[in-house]
UniProtKB/TrEMBL annotation, chain A:
It comes from Streptomyces swartbergensis. Pfam families: DUF742. InterPro entries: DUF742. Residues 1-29 are annotated as: Disordered. This is DUF742 domain-containing protein.
TrEMBL record, chain B:
Residues 399-446 are annotated as: Disordered. It is an enzyme of class 2 (transferase). The keyword Transmembrane applies. Signal peptide: none annotated. It catalyses: ATP + protein L-histidine = ADP + protein N-phospho-L-histidine. Residues 262-376 form the Histidine kinase/HSP90-like ATPase domain. One of its GO terms (molecular function) is protein histidine kinase activity. This is histidine kinase. GO terms for cellular component: plasma membrane. It comes from Streptomyces swartbergensis. Pfam families: HATPase_c.
Length: 132, 547
């Protein structure tokens, strides 16, 4: 006689092994921990240039702040930083404002190309064309 | 069987010997009386004496008989009571065995998941002594087992329904987190919307933790798994993101290790509960310090708050709570535990072999220590630290049902996403945002500042730079200072741009009468047919013509 088999109280079946992700950066942090929703935002434009004042990040800096300081050894625009860090512009604003308050970075409006350069280039082109 | 009968011979003397003495005494008394009394009375006295003797003998015989009957009955009685006592003792023994051996053994078998009848059958197989239980005992055992079985089934069902509800909540939370993530990407340029989305995201994470807690207490597994190792820093920030007052948490000197993917969720959850306790039971203006160091057995995460000091009594109570949780808390007991978090931590610690303890902190508050065993830790770089940055996170769900099938939203992102495939190096491709009325793409500048203002600012910046340079200060902007435009080349120099082309044209014009266009031979080929018959000019001529 075969004993009646019961289903209950069996251990749950083992979940399938995790599959490979679709190439996304996977990590359990949420964005508000990186840049708080109630954080202050300085007047930063997408093209505002950011440069680090200190080369070595302080030990208390978060990885994002350290990354900004590393990237901004040479001036970079906010838009570029936002793309490199995979952080939206709004989050970048909070992050940079914190750094600006801590006086770790400097911000400056972008450099404008002057008309003078354009004019000389145009003249050169014109000269070349006239010679034809 | 013990004999309680009196030894034979003691009470079994023959009647004659027992009756002899009174009969002789009576006969002697009768004889003496007959001898003493006068002759006429002798007959009567003799008769009386004889009758009396006979009566005495008869009485004595009766008494002896009764005595013997009594003794026999007493013996019977003693035997009977001894038998009864023996039976009582045997019953007691049976009962003790039943309660101390059989029922525990049966319950143990039952807890392995057998049905009551199976349990009784297996009990007989395991120990032949248990095979032939008396009918009432067998019946009692069956009844008890059935009752226990039903109760266990009901508890099980209750826990399962809890867990299944929690899993459904988890599924919805998970889906919502994913959508919020997309929305955060979509509206990243819009600070007001973005901040609101972050707030919703935070609330969502809080609900998710509650659902996770119920699931863990119901014996479920964490609903998420991370495909790759996650750095401990990111893991702890993940824990931070699931509590209400995450801003008060301060991570410092976190060991550079990663948590293996399948263990990330338990560590996050346990740490989140401990962080929640720390922030909840300390003043709102104090910070909670978190450090993580590598120790022999793994990684030790220390969470220190500046709250009320834990006296010995409270510590013992909390440790007891943790111990109880480690032993297994039922969902039914939750009501008695106001600190749900510790029950969850205890459960997780048992399931994943982590260790937790609470001590008095140097800050005057409580120091919670969570030791994550080394088999959950890896030294591979985690996903977070590989880039050093990044806060995206979408785990895969395991064992939780799919979220509700909501119609996909037609997204209208207010800020375009940058796909990972696009290289950031060549950003020359114009981004078409609007179209002019005649169908041409128009590139709209996203810079809000008018040009005049920017030029003015530029002047100010340059002035500041010059002043800084005069003062001899370090100027980080010098690297990007506008490069001086190169002076235009001297057009008369032999290597000036366009000189080669000019020489080419000059060459073409050679041999053509002035006034004719250099490419005239294409327009009137017939006019130049004679050139085919002419000998080709020598190389020396060509060389000479170039100069």
């Amino acid at each position: 006689m075969t004993p009646p088999q019961r289903q209950r109280r069996d251990p749950a079946p083992e979940p399938p092994p995790p599959q490979e992700g679709e190439g996304k950066v996977r990590n359990p942090e949420r964005m508000y921990v990186v840049a708080g929703p109630d954080g202050e935002r300085a007047e930063l434009d997408l093209v505002t240039l950011i440069v680090a004042r200190a080369t070595d990040p302080p030990p208390s800096a978060s990885p994002e702040q350290a990354a900004v300081l590393r990237l901004c050894a040479a001036p970079l625009s906010v838009a570029e930083l936002s793309a490199y860090l995979h952080l939206p512009y709004s989050a970048m604003g909070v992050l940079l404002t914190e750094l600006l308050t801590a006086e770790l970075v400097q911000a400056r409006a972008p450099i404008v190309r002057k008309q003078r350069t354009d004019r000389s280039l145009l003249e050169a082109v014109m000269n070349g064309l006239q010679r034809l | 069987m013990v004999s309680v009968q009196s030894p034979p011979g003691r009470g079994e003397r023959p009647y004659t010997r027992v009756l002899l003495l009174p009969a002789i005494a009576m006969a002697a008394a009768t004889g003496a009386a007959v001898a003493l009394v006068t002759a006429p009375a002798r007959l009567a006295v003799g008769w009386c004496g004889g009758i009396a003797t006979v009566l005495v003998i008869a009485t004595a015989a009766e008494a002896v008989r009764r005595g013997r009957a009594l003794r026999k009955q007493r013996g019977e009685h003693a035997r009977h009571s001894a038998h009864l006592e023996q039976r009582i003792a045997a019953h007691e023994h049976e009962l003790v065995r039943f309660s101390r051996e059989i029922i525990p053994a049966a319950l143990q078998l039952l807890s392995t998941g057998e049905s009551p009848r199976e349990v009784i059958r297996k009990l007989g197989l395991a120990n032949p002594e248990y095979r032939d239980l008396p009918a009432p005992q067998a019946e009692t055992l069956l009844t008890v087992l059935k009752i226990v079985d039903r109760e266990v089934t009901m508890r099980d069902a209750a826990a399962r329904s809890f867990v299944s509800v929690a899993r459904r909540v988890q599924a919805i939370i998970h889906q919502q987190a994913e959508e919020l993530r997309e929305m955060e990407e979509d509206h990243g340029r819009n600070p007001e919307v973005f901040d609101d989305l972050l707030r919703i995201d935070h609330g969502n994470a809080l609900i998710g933790r509650l659902a996770d807690s119920v699931s863990v207490l119901g014996g479920g597994r964490p609903g998420r798994q991370w495909p790759e190792p996650v750095s401990l820093y990111s893991t702890l920030r993940g824990a931070m993101s699931r509590i209400l007052e995450y801003r008060r948490i301060q991570l410092s000197s976190i060991a550079k290790v990663s948590v293996k993917g399948i263990y990330v969720e338990p560590v996050i959850h346990a740490a989140a509960e401990l962080l929640d306790n720390a922030t909840r039971y300390s003043p709102p203006q104090t910070k909670v310090h978190v450090t993580a160091t590598e120790v022999q057995t793994g990684v030790c995460i220390e969470i220190e708050d500046g709250g009320v000091n834990l006296n010995e009594e409270a510590r013992a109570r909390i440790e007891g709570m943790l111990e109880a949780a480690k032993a297994g808390v039922d969902l039914q007991d939750i009501g008695e535990h106001p600190r749900l978090g510790l029950a969850v931590v205890g459960r997780l610690c048992t399931a994943y072999n982590m260790q937790v303890s609470l001590r008095a902190s140097a800050y005057g508050g409580v120091r919670a220590i969570l030791i994550v065993p080394s088999q959950m830790i890896t030294h591979e770089p985690g996903v977070g630290l590989a880039h050093g940055i990044g806060a995206t996170g979408i785990p895969m769900t395991v064992g939780i049902p799919e979220g509700p099938k909501r119609a996909p939203k037609r997204r209208r992102p207010t800020s375009p996403k940058i796909p990972a495939t696009v290289s950031l190096e060549d950003d020359d491709v114009p981004e078409v945002t609007e179209w002019t009325p005649n169908g041409l793409p128009q590139r709209r500048s996203r810079v809000k500042m008018p040009l005049a203002e920017r030029l003015a600012q530029q002047e100010a910046n340059e002035k500041a730079d010059r002043e800084a340079a005069e003062r001899g200060e370090y100027n980080p902007w010098a690297a990007v200072a506008e490069p001086e435009p190169k002076p235009l080349r001297d057009m008369s120099a032999p290597d000036a741009p366009g000189k080669g082309l000019e020489a080419f044209w000059e060459g073409l014009k050679q041999g053509i009468e002035p006034g004719t266009h250099p490419t005239d031979f294409i327009r009137n080929p017939t006019k130049y047919l004679h050139l085919l018959n002419d000998p080709a000019p020598t190389e020396a001529d060509d060389e000479g013509d170039l100069k």
